[in-house]
Amino acid sequence: MAMADAFLPIFLDSLVTAWGAILISVTLILLFGEIIPQSVCSRYGLAIGATVATFVQVLTVETEGRLSILGELSHWSLLLGKSV
After folding, report:
1. How far from each other are the two terminal CA atoms of the chain, in whole angstroms?
2. Neighbours of 55 (CB within 10 A)
3. Assessment of whether the complete model's pTM goes beyond 0.90
4. Cα angle vertex 55, ends 51, 42, to 5°?
5. Residue percentage of the chain with pLDDT more than 90
6. Which residues of the chain have pLDDT under 70?
7. Among 25, 29, 3, 31, which Cα is nearest to 12's?
8. Is 8 exposed, middle or buried (0-12, 13-18, 19+ CB in 10 A)?
9. DSSP 8-state symbol, 31
């Protein structure tokens, strides 16, 4: 999500003015990233969570191996810059 938040104003800057890009991106991120999810999940949060729980568990097991390797690589790349 953070990457989309960062690239939306850059993309919109080629279409509208800089102020317009900032205004549109902040409005869209606030609306679709905060207001709508809060209003939906405050009422139907438990039902939504129960519906997607199995999918999230399968996705977690499926990506665990790749992400643990990526985590180890990033850990060691950060340690290379430090003197121990």
Report:
1. 34
2. 9
3. no
4. 40
5. 36
6. 1, 82-84
7. 25
8. middle
9. I
